[in-house]
UniProtKB/TrEMBL annotation:
UniProt cross-references to PANTHER family, sorted A to Z: GLYCOSYLTRANSFERASE
Endpoints of the signal sequence: none
Protein name (database record): Glycosyltransferase
UniProt cross-references to Pfam families, sorted A to Z: Glycos_transf_1, Methyltransf_25
Keywords: Glycosyltransferase, Transferase
Boundaries of every Methyltransferase domain copy: 414-510
Residues covered by the Glycosyl transferase family domain: 176-330
Organism whose genome encodes this protein: Halomonas alkaliantarctica
Superkingdom in the source lineage: Bacteria
Keyword Transferase: yes
Gene3D superfamilies linked to this entry: Glycogen Phosphorylase B, Vaccinia Virus protein VP39
EC nos: 2.4.-.-
Molecular-function GO term, any one: glycosyltransferase activity
Amino acid sequence: MSKRFTLIVAGDPAQRTGGYIYDAQIVSALRDQGWTIDVVGLAGIFPDADAEAAEALTQALESLPDQASVVIDGLAMGALPEVVAQHAPRLEITALLHHPLGDELGLNEADQQRFHRSELTALAPVARIIVTSHFTARRLPELAAHYALPLNTSVTVVEPGVSQAPISPAAESGEALRLLCVATLTPRKGQDILVQALSGVAGTHWQCDCYGGARDTAFTQLVQQLIDQNGLQSAVKLHGECDSETLEAAYRSAHALVLPSWYEGYGMVVTEALAHGLPVITTTGGALRDTLPTGAGLGVEPGDADALQDALSRFCHHDELRHQLRQGAAQAREALSDWQEAGANFAAALIAPANRLSSSTADSLGDFPNLRAGSQFESDWLTLREAADVDSRSQRLAGFAAEWLSARAPTPLIADLGCGRGSNMRFLAPRLSGHQRWKLIDHDAILLAQARQRAAGLSDSQGQPVAVETHCVSLEPLADVPLDDAHLVTASALLDLVSQQWIDALVTRVAGQQQALLITLSVTGEWHFIDPQCAPVLDDEDHWLLAMFIAHQQRDKGLGDALGGQAHQALVAALEGADYRVEQAETPWQLAAGSQEQQPLMMALLEGWAEAATEQAPEAAARIATWLKQRQQAVANGELGIWVGHRDLFATPLFANPREEA
């Protein structure tokens, strides 16, 4: 694909809402990276498209030559599936979704269903789908299943970046606290709930400044009426839409961001606030539960004015809480990605081959990755598990691998299968010596781009830089994967996805080349809960759910009928049959009860297990939901931790001779 595409949006591309700002920032970043992009704004009414809108989209697509690449913002295409379907066979169409149209607040049930069905129909023929949050990536398959409509295209997540910003100063002693709300005045943004909540916050040492265009006149009048009725004219100000300089000044003088939305597809203002080191008081609506990092703010259920009032009161009246949240926001600020990285991820998604899914593949999408389909090993999950992986991995086997490589080549080459974000390389490279070369292999172009970026500055045990090359290929068929020149083949957290045939093919290849094999963090299929003293907690419901999880593990994840927890032992048997010496180590995760640091990983595990069980036994969905709620509460209360079984292995040919690098 050439580095050129046309971006089509609804209305004026210069509008200052989250979706349009995302589009503009991506365009700017990609232009900086050498892309040529034509931006087209469509006339007409959207998203409930009128005849003028349909004609505008038709003309825009008809003007493009065959095989041209075009990205259509979801607001411009969701209600026009016939137009999209007409041009999809001759154009490379990418859909860019900020959130499903039918999830907008205020729609009646009939309109909600109409928008959902129309948008899913429009998505069916496109080459690829890019969404701006992992929440939306989860939401789309749910909607497709609910309406029994096909989702034939893989979904890739490209989260927004954030511009660098100075940290806003903390409130001085006695200074009035300045709360900032940045959102268009529409019912979904919940400013009416915010005013109701603020009316119950005691004291006069705070003020709230609201910036955002009045997109709904009646709602704007309602919010102003609530301000007047509660005597908050001097404390709550509606400033309307403003330019970027005014908004930046507002961020720099604020002490917290307040976002009372019922629902967000991502919530870019949250990360903008964090970039300024501001704590965030928001809801858990839509993607906001994911967007706000733990410890960087307070989250309440959407629409709950009393809970929001309590959160605002605690923030305004407790110095220690403000200090803690400010520290959390500063910590979260360090982990934010910029727009250049977002642009690179977007580019990688466009360059990657279009992934049309078979019906069986589409049906399998969920918490567990499918190696033929887009970004299923999602970046946030890989990030979440990395610390637990490092704590669990066998240092002894890593040492064996270092000894093997040092005896065979002054410049060893390591091939990393299913490398994801490069965590395996980041663990091993500092423990190996010699001028290392790494061959990072994954089906996902976005994760490969992140892995290459994370390799920058990486050194071996002697401080020498590490050379990296990337290969975007599927792991099936294995014969097409470039392994032959490697001295060591490695993989992490991959084995449970593969079949017996895939294992046999891998062993045949490495044995033919007399290569060593280091396979780590292979799940055994065993997990259980532990109490605060790390003793196992046994429960019939847990055993019942574990059985369904094990059955789900054995579904085809893209590499044949998966062996799940049996894969490790199957690999050991195949290696021993090929005259390999195999060293093993138990490497379980032990996630402690009450650990705030490990709690997000535990919550993600619980959700993943529940999703897998529900896919395996949909008739038991209510029982599984009850199990999930109870276990989440126990983990949140510090009553339970989680033990997850893993094993590592390192294998070398019994009759190998040291060989020099060619």
